[in-house]
Amino acid sequence: MRLIMKTEPRTLAGFMELLPDEQILFNQIKQKIENTYKKFGFLPLDTPIIELSEVLLAKAGGETEKQIYRFTKGETDLSLRFDLTVPLSKYVAKNYGNLSFPFRRYQIGKVYRGEKAQKGRYREFYQCDIDIIGDGELDIINDAELTSVIYTIFKELGFSDFTICINNRKILNGLFESIGQKENSTEILRIIDKIDKIGKEAVIEELAKLNIKKENIEKIIEFLEIQGTSNEKIEKLEKLKIENETFKLGLEELKEVVKNVKLFAVPEENYKVDLTIARGLDYYTGTVYETFLNNYREIGSVCSGGRYDNLAEYYTDKKLPGVGISIGLTRLFYKLNELNLIKANKKSISDVLIIPMVENLEIPIKLATELREEGINTEIYLNNKKLKAKLKYADKLKIKYVIVIGEDEINTKTINIKNMETGKENKIKLDAKQIIKELN
Amino acid sequence: MRLIMKTEPRTLAGFMELLPDEQILFNQIKQKIENTYKKFGFLPLDTPIIELSEVLLAKAGGETEKQIYRFTKGETDLSLRFDLTVPLSKYVAKNYGNLSFPFRRYQIGKVYRGEKAQKGRYREFYQCDIDIIGDGELDIINDAELTSVIYTIFKELGFSDFTICINNRKILNGLFESIGQKENSTEILRIIDKIDKIGKEAVIEELAKLNIKKENIEKIIEFLEIQGTSNEKIEKLEKLKIENETFKLGLEELKEVVKNVKLFAVPEENYKVDLTIARGLDYYTGTVYETFLNNYREIGSVCSGGRYDNLAEYYTDKKLPGVGISIGLTRLFYKLNELNLIKANKKSISDVLIIPMVENLEIPIKLATELREEGINTEIYLNNKKLKAKLKYADKLKIKYVIVIGEDEINTKTINIKNMETGKENKIKLDAKQIIKELN
Fold this sequence. Notes:
The structure is a homodimer. By secondary structure, chain A is an alpha+beta fold. The first copy, chain A, has two domains: about 20-45 and about 85-340, 2-Layer Sandwich (BirA Bifunctional Protein, domain 2); about 350-440, 3-Layer(aba) Sandwich (Rossmann fold). Chain A is about 40% helix and about 20% strand. Chain A has 17 helices and 16 strands. Chain A has an eight-stranded mixed sheet with strand order 1-5-6-11-10-9-7-8. In chain A, α1 (about 20-40) packs antiparallel against α5 (about 140-155), α11 (about 230-240) packs antiparallel against α12 (about 245-265) and α14 (about 360-375) packs across α17. The longest helix of chain A has 20 residues, at about 20-40.
């Protein structure tokens, strides 16, 4: 007998690790997102989690850089990816000659940010991204198509009361230029991006700290408070008569996106122009999106993204404009679960559990093999326990159909198949095809 | 115009990053493995890639520990997982009260080992694992079931000429005990595990270095050279009359596994007893498996595993015996690709490409939406290019069905659907249901 010091088995704070029933649910949601991405023809991509720091941080800076998991192995300075956009930039620059443009890719994978640990904040989390990258140019209608992807996903996930909010960064930038605040654009955007969280008064206060004249702050607030339907907002923007080329271009783009969203069969109630949406990240240059569950706006945006002029400018001279969206799945899952908007109800992925009560397992195992060959997820209970213990397992795992096979069943070549959800039992032939008929 | 210093976009050596066509193929293989695992009723698990070093390395040592990606973040000593077995041990010990036993789980995920970089060796690679964990005990028939999983996977992947080699560590250990070499067991196992690579003479030489008597080395070699069918080998083992309890128990287990493998419909030609299989890892205590593609034995084992008495002894006093297998998918993919045993032939996951040649995209987009609603992966070419450029895109991506929609098509409500593989074109109604009929 060896004596072994026990280590307490624990998982790091900020790292999600689920029990099987929740994992099944998580995977179902992930699968629905992936299937939707594929339905729109996006190609799969899987980049390494570890990259050279020099490559990964070619651009980074500020908050992001502080959160990076960065370390050396041997002589090499390495970092864990903190999003899927930078690896995409690297990939497209590196493989430019081997890709067909527009390059439409999806990537679903884990990313790492050493954020302050708190409930519902994750340091390892899944991002589910799609991007469409053009070679030199990319028509604005692609921006509209992405709203259709967002709409399809949230419908697939069982939601109907959600809103895709659309804005255009050029409108905001143009407005700031027109009031002589071009230099402060990024800072102003960061502030107004928070209006939902901190409120109008706090935004005014923060803007004042930038030494913006009171009349210009009023202009910004007046702009943010434009109300009405999407078309009414666009009309009001036109009436502002802001003589700035960036503003005008942004307004044209926004009109075009809104016009095209209709073509993609996204219902009126599921999207709107929202002039307060800015997306703090400074690489967006045109359309920006955020998506809210209307009754749970406090969750924040459940799917965000936007248009950028130049995906890979830190790696190549090629101009690669793109548009993309991202779903932070780990946090979304946590929040939906917390709000009871999703519920783990499958504890097993088996459709059928076969419980043998005989010495010779030939017939039960043969049946399991035949069911699997027909595509039925089938488990056979293989431990030599009393029937009661076996049924308890079936009950705990909530496998829908249970078949007990004893001497009687083998002699009479008939079985009882029990639907554990309804309690209904049917006596049928001991035959895979007959059983499959029962399942449908 | 900003001036930006360009960083060369590169990916770390030893990290696989595929072009889309190969990624599609890789994902297909991964999906087939996952589907097979699900068909046998294994539950999904997804543990973090980062763990506390103290937890992850509770046991480790030797070669493995040197290869670990280990670093600190803040004050915390962290490591990247180097396999999926240690995280499973931690998980089962941690969640013991919330799991149903036998606990059958699959996990497919990336693991990290800082091996010397060389062709075909990866530092980041996918492992595809299943394990069955018993609470206190686990019947030996489970060991036979796993051969059925291995068989199903390689059939699914299109192979028929492969052999699952089965052995039992107790037979080897008992043999060593019987010649007074119990203390050297681990070392002897490591040596004979290499017999395939280094040959018999080198094994004899290495064994001699352990100061094992010549007559005992002869016994080991004689044992390793036992020939015949699985049943003949078992008979010859019985005739050795080795009076050692461990040996006898191992032989009983091996007989039982071989007897049961037949029940699981694994054909005779796809498995055999192979007494040279040892699996160097010292946590195996009973059945061990390796799987070889018969015409490509130089690849090494494509699926390995075995039985262990005590999964989580470093974390809990509970006795948790288990049996599991693992496929190193990244290396397998590399090797199969290198040998031309698999071939990327899909460059797209879209089934249909719609090419609009009209100003008003309403009808083409509506058709794309309808096809997607029917589950067809559909892409619509949205950039305003000449027909020639659009067809070039279709050709490069090799999307199977192409539909061009111009004014004529809209006016006559008929389209040509072209099968790009056969070149065949059919004139049909501009209608999603009609098009879907064409696809089948």
